Amino acid sequence: MISHRxxxxxPGETREASCLLCGGATTPFLDLGxxxxxxxxxxxxxxxxxxxxxxxxxxxxxxSMVQMLHPIERELMFNEHxxxxxxxxxxxxxxxxxxxxxxxxxxxxxxPFIVEVGSNDGxxxxxLAVLQVRHLxxxxxxxxxxxCADGGLEVIEAFFEERTARDVRERYGPADIIYAANTMCHxxxxxxxxTGADALLAEGGVLIFExxxxxxxxxxxxxxxxxxxxxxxxxxxxxxxxxxxxxxSLVDVERLPVHGGEVRYSLARxxxxxxxxxxxxxxxxxRVHGLHSLDALHGLARRVDRNRRQxxxxxxxxxxxxxxxxxxGATAKSATVCNYVGIDTSMVSRVxxxxxxxxxxxxxGSGIPVVPSAEFGPPYPDVALxxxxxxxxxxxERETAFTASGGRWLTYVPEVRLSRLxxxx
Length: 425
Ligand code: SAH
Ligand code: TMP
Ligand code: ZN
Description:
By secondary structure, this protein is of the alpha/beta class. The chain is built from 13 helices and 17 strands. It has a seven-stranded mixed beta sheet, with helices on both faces. The chain has a six-stranded mixed beta sheet with strand order 14-13-12-15-16-17. Helix 11 (333-341) links the parallel strand 12 (325-328) and strand 13 (351-353). The protein is globular. The N and C termini lie far apart (46 Å). Residues 1-7 have low confidence and may be disordered. The chain binds S-adenosyl-L-homocysteine, thymidine-5'-phosphate (TMP) and zinc ion. Residues 88-89, 329-333, 353-355, 358, 373, 388, 390-391, 394-395 line the site of thymidine-5'-phosphate (TMP).
């Protein structure tokens, strides 16, 4: 069931590949060059060859899914080294607390059972536990699964797919809701996931997932949403087609203002739940705006190339002026930015980040030292390159002293922009 194409092409070379989901022909539209694993931070003493791959993005002409043309084996990414911690963002913690309550309201019946796929550090599960709701997390990265299980949450260290979903159905009974945030787009074998969801869900149960929205990526030129873990970039249209192919129907969509723009999709078995009006609205909106046209996607590729050139020249300008430039947020997304633009330690001397598992290490590919964000203080650098732009509100609210001291924020989404004093949005 699990198909992984591991054929690699070189940057500059393009090749038609077949769609990971439906086997249709894909058209490449964005080449982001040679990339490392975005969450594999390296020790300064590690001299081994770094794993790299060709990051090329295409769209399937049949099912319209935007996808990576050379996906990476899942065990290389999700394992005991996986450093990401959801709860390090206070805004995301609040988002997931609200979500946990909303899921419980949605489940509605007596003694509901809620399964979360990609439960990470328990940002949702811990609220379900407090509410005394039966829950189970699927989390293959032991770096995050173990501490949750040790802390008393119900988590199994496994990838969600048909086989593991069937096992859970046998051991725990049917689930009222299967929920996933920022995880479905990480899974190449979505056919197996949907078959597994069909096996695990109770009658009338729903599969709810939220992921970065292609429409917002095109609108904001957020090319850093493309990296190894983001195997797909979803839209209402592509999810609608996918759902139908596996006996499901897309019954609700909700735009979310997190991580630079996401959509929360709800799927139910065909005929079990009436679709909300806003599903047809979103599909119509995507059609009218030609979201899936090659014109739109090539337009994105041109703007991404423009941003690359402008960011490089802005950083070169800062270096010539003798300005100190640091990075803020060693995001997985920043691996794409650094390695596509060609950013190294001569342009960005270090990156501040709050994740313990990244601090003291070097950024993938670009080799920039990661230092604790608690050390971001006077004497401040002249410029901070805001890699964690999706957390801008939270960060700018905290770092007012930097801005007040004359520090400037450099951003590249949707355009390259160096803020003037008091000019930060
Ligand atoms: N839900 C959290 C974490 C997102 S990161 C949030 O929104 O912040 C993606 C998580 O999915 C990682 O913790 C990774 O280990 C996990 N993951 C990857 N593939 C998975 C799969 N097939 N089944 C379950 N979890 C998976
Ligand atoms: P994300 O964009 O994938 O959520 O990653 C955000 C990264 O930025 C993660 O490594 C944590 C880091 N970060 C900070 O360093 N400071 C902050 O205030 C926030 C919100 C995140
Ligand atoms: Zn397809």
